[in-house]
Design brief:
Length: 146
Amino acid sequence: MLLPSKKLFYAVEAVLFIAYNAKAGPIAGRDIAEKQNLSPRYLEPMLQKLVRAGILQGVRGPQGGYVLGRERRRISLNDICLALTDEASIPSKTTPLGDAILKPELATLNQAWQQQLSSISMAQLCERASQQRIPLAYATIHDFAI
């Protein structure tokens, strides 16, 4: 069975964590890693790739961390996959069977996979979490002046 890598799972979970707790302000990478029981050194490169892709935005300073780079409804699982996926894992040199049969089949599967992932947004996942009454990790910060 074809499943996403652990890194991809952790990256999606990190973006979902940020999206679900978005009203709390920037969330430190080390806090996200701690919640996921990961080393910050393991998670940080993934978060930086997501920043470069515009999915997350880094906020500097003592109260810094990560916030979403765009609206939750505009971030799909496919966006995250594309940001973290390096070069294609299909070798360029294959046998005639690989070229004629396997590569086209894998291309079809990949296209279907991307379409399915594109149909799932962070907003939908946050709504599911809310429906299941999953508690927020941080209290909402009220930022206003009188």
